[in-house]
Every structure is written in C-alpha cells, then in structure tokens.
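@channel sequence for tomorrow's demo:
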Amino acid sequence: MLDSLFSPKSIAIIGASRSPSKLGYSILYNLIESKYGGAIYPINPGADEILGYKAYPSLGDVPERVDLAVIVVPAKRVMEALNDCANNGVGAVIIISAGFRETGGEGLRLERQMAEIAEKHNMPIVGPNCVGVLDTIVPYNCTFATETMPKRGKMAFMSQSGALCVGILDVCIAQNIGFSRFVSLGNKAHLNELDFLQAWSNDDDSNVILAYLEGIVDGGRFISEARQITKKKPVIAIKSGTTSGGSRAVSSHTGTLAGSERAYEAAFKQAGIIRATSISELLDIGLGFARQPLPRGDRIAIITNAGGLGIMATDALEHKGLKLAALSPDTQERLRAALPEAASVLNPIDVLGDARSDRYKLALEAALADENVDLVLVILTPQVMTDVDNIANFMADAAESQPADSRKPVVACFVGEASLKEAYRIFSERSIPGYPTPERAAVVIKSMVQQAQWAKEPLPQFERFDVDRDKVARIFEKVRAEGRVQIGDAESRDILTAYGIRIPKSKLCTTADEAVAYADEIGYPVVMKIASPDILHKTDVGGVRVGLDSPSEVRDAFDLMVYRAQKYQPNAQIWGCLVQEMMRGGKEVITGMNRDPQFGPLVMFGLGGIYVEVLKDVSFRVAPFDRKEAMAMIQEIRSYGLLRGVRGEPPADLDAVADVLLRLSQLVTDFPEIVEMDINPLMVFEKGRGAVGVDMRLILQS
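structure tokens (generated this afternoon):
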C-alpha cells in the first residue's frame, strides 16, 4: 500500500518555488540535496526551471506517471491539487499545507473529502499540516525540517507534531544518531499511526518503531493490531496531553480527541507498547533496540572501573525489577586468575580504577561466555590511565564476534563528556548503545527485557461465558421506555446474575411490613438501602443502613430512609427499600467501567468502599482482556498485599475476582450503550469462597 511513499521512482513538488523564503523552494532544495536518484518534477505554472530542474505547469504535463507528489500550496488550492493528483494516477501524496481540521468545521469537512479521494483512487495521503517525510533508505528528503540528512540507521520514527520532528532531527544529526524513515503525521486525514505501524512491522530496514502521539484513531483496533505488531518488533511511544491542560492544548493543536491518560496507560500495556516519558528517553530506548539484540532473560552482569557507579547501577536496575546475574564458579575463577587481587570477581565486576582495555576485554569476554548472564552493562569513567577508545572498540568487537544465534546485548555507560566524544562516535558507528548515567542505561535495559518477555508470550485468548444476554437487553429496553438512563442497585441485581456474578440474598420491599417479613425470612442482621432510580449515591441521603438486628430496627430504618430521601430529593421516584443479607468477613474491593471516547470500555479495579475516590488505589484495562490481564490488574494496586493475606489472614479468592472482571468485561463489550458502571463494594472472601457484588449502579447512553 505504501510502496509509492517509501520506494518512489519519481517525485513531483506541487507548489515548487524559485523564492528561497517559500516552503516550495525549501522542500525542492532538500530533495535535491538528499541525493535522491529518481526523477524530480517541480510543478509551477509560472516557472520554466527551478534549481536546475525543468518546471511543469501541471501534473498533466509531466512525461510520466508520478509515484509521489508533495503538495505545498495555500490551503484554498489544496483540493484542486489533490484532485489533479487523483486524475493523473499519482501513487501517494504528502500534503504540507496547513489550515484544515485545526481551524474548525470547514477544515474537518475538507479532510473527510481528502480521505474519500484517497480511498477512491487508492492514493494514500500523509497530512495535511505536516512537515513531510524523510527516508534514508531510498534516500529522499521531502521535508522543510533540515537540509542535512541524518545518517542511515535502524529506527523508524513518526510524529504528530511537526515541530518535534524538526527538533529531534536536529538533535540526532548533532549526536550522529541514525534513522531509517521519518514521518510527520500531521492531521492524519487519511494515513494514521496504525498504517505506519503495519507498514514498518515488516520493514527489514527498521529494528524499532518510535512514535510521538497526541491522539489515536480507532483505539480498539489500535490495541488489537498493535498487540500483534509488537510481538515482532518493539514500539516505543511518547504520549502528550496527559494532564487536563495538556489535553486541551492537544485538542487545539490538531483537533484530536485526547482520550484519558488512564486509558492510554492501559492501552499501551495491552498492546505491548513501551511508553517513554521524555524525548531523551524515547531516543535512549530506541537506540538500545536499534543497535543490539534482545536479551534472553533478565540476568544482568555489570563491569565497572568505579565501585560507586557499580552500586548506583545495581540500585537503578533493581528499582526497575531486574536482577544481577549470579556469575558461575568458572567465570569467577577465570576473573580471579586474570584480575588484580583487589578486583571484585562477583557482580558487579570491579576491574579497578587503573584498568586498561586488557582488563575490560577479559571481563567482558568472561561475562558474555557465562550461561547465567543475559546482558552485560559496561561502566567506565575516564581516568588518566584509561585507554577509552580502545575499550570502546573492544566492546564492539566482543559484541560482534558472538555467534549469530545466541548474541547477548552489550550496553555502555561511559560517564563523563570531554574525554568520551570519540568513544561515543565509535559506539554510533559500531552499533553499541551508550548512555551517560546508570539510571538512563537501566531504563533501556528494563525496556529490552520487557520486550523480550512480551515477544515470548502468546496472544491473549478471550474467554466467553454462558450468559443471559437477552435478559439484560430487556432490562435496558424497559429503562429506556421509562425515559431513564440510570440503573440503581435494585434493578442491577438481575444484570449481575444474568452475567454469572453472585449477589447477596435480597428483595425490593415496598412497605415496612414487607421489609420486616423478608428480614425475618433470611435472618438478622440485614442491610437496608433506599431503592430509587433517581438516587445513585445512596449514602449522600442517609440511604444505607447496615447491621440491622431486629424487626423494630428494620421498621424504623425503612420509615426514616424513605422520609430522608423524599426530603433530600422531592421529585425522586421512591420504590421502597432493598433488604439484603449482611455479608461478613470479606474484603471490600471495587470494579467498574467508564467508556473512553477513543478506546471504548475502560474497566477499573481497586480497593473498594466509600474512600475509593480519595485513595485512588486502582488499575485499568480496556475491554476485552484475558485472564492474565485480569490478574495483572489485581496485582498492580498498592494494597495487593492485603488481598494476598497479611498477619495470618488467609489470602482472598483472587481467581474469583478475576472471574468477575472477565464477566464485567464481557458485559460492557456486549452492550456498548453502557457508558458508566461500578460494583462497589465487591466483597471478596477467602480463597475458595468466591466474591459477591453487593452494590451496583449503571448509566446508559442518553
């Protein structure tokens, strides 16, 4: 689909200019300077020649079909130029021009027209409102970002921010960091992030995909397809708009619906996307994948000439959940025989401050040969006797000389600057990722280990339970017929049972006498709740009483609750009170769902009760998800230790909780009209005794 974009044999610049101050000049100049080997056609009806190339009045005057056209004309002329491309069989189009979605309704309408033209003529479009596309493989530079091409590398990069493209290119040229392909997404009228993920997943010239995203098109499809792509190739993303202010800025920037931060966090986890927190981290992690193979496991060996940095690296790795390798006795003996007596042959391997390249070479070869080691981190500070450049070259030699089918990654952490410039140049030329601090190296190593583990895991298998979907559909139909969208605890009992979620014994009672009779039947103590479709937060009106021990307490509670509810909300419809058996001995957790505008049903799990909004000890996943993700949700909350059992308490029935999460996931996937719901509390009992949904509320789409 994208051959014309990434392998064009001819490129036309529509809006090419003779004026150096115009974008049409800059893009043509950059294309020529990039040593592009195909045909170049400047399109300008007012020029005969531009920058030594014959100019043409229109695409129709070009002597051959054009593979790639770059449109850089004022916004009001873009649609005319685009139709001209379609009518002349152009293979792909890059629209540089701005003034569309980001300006409001008319601009959005024009972008929809662009997408229609693209689909009708099988002519993919990048943009509009973008910086362009740069490719070091072809090579070509159809951007106004830089006159200097970055070196060829193994990282593919896409960005929704054009200015960020310009900045990152400048940094990477200065630091000799290479790229394979570089795309400014712009407003994504047609091609979006998923199209490039799919294209680059099978690109042998790119080992890793980097992305700066402000919003995602079709979140559910993104998770499903990105999950398969990341099994083959690492994807590193930085997502902006994580605060409310940032989200507003994103919206005004490209007209993108930002989505919730929690949803993106969950979506990236489920899709296997590694999330970077800064531009420097994005590039750091990208270099690790671009230059070295994945590790087989998480056992790290450290080699250092500075004991303090070895300790700092150990701390940084352990904070990331990694562990130091236990070096084999043979490795320790090999090191002991060759290193000075004062050196440490344990891990970290301290070759001492006076170490030269011979010690580093021996230590690195020994560590790479050890079956207990999966990755080696080499730390160096440039002391007077340190032959830094030789050590850098020896590292590259050792990394390259490993058997192709069992290569272990080698990562450098050379701390300093003035004495290390040549070493970092060697790393760049010889594919060793190098970092100036142990903490930055640890982030990269963690990402490499995480990707290796993710790639081995099978794709999720979604469970489908035998449920009574028709019963729930009838309840929703009845609620809507009554002009309501809110469903409280009294009605929600039937929804839970229809989807196999246990509930306490309970009954909606319309009179105090009926409430007493039912309490007598199920046994005391009981719980009583006000039943009203108009009152969802019952505690706000004193609408919940627990531990009612006698008929008189039940009668008094019924009368008082109804009175308070009518006083608090005079127009509320009061059905009576729900009398419920008292659940004892369990732990209170919460689960629920909020429908995210980009990703759909976002399921939550956390510590329950009335303090959930204060404690915010919760985790999220986008439905549907599998049992492994359900268990991960449970284990991610800070209070997970309480559920495992503390101070002699038995562990909670976590399998039952996971079961509830999966059934809830199926419910909200089956019924997209559910926009919000929660079960609070879900009482979880000790292992083997299950979980019970005590209270539930639900809101349908209006």
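heads up for whoever presents: The chain is about 40% helix and 20% strand.
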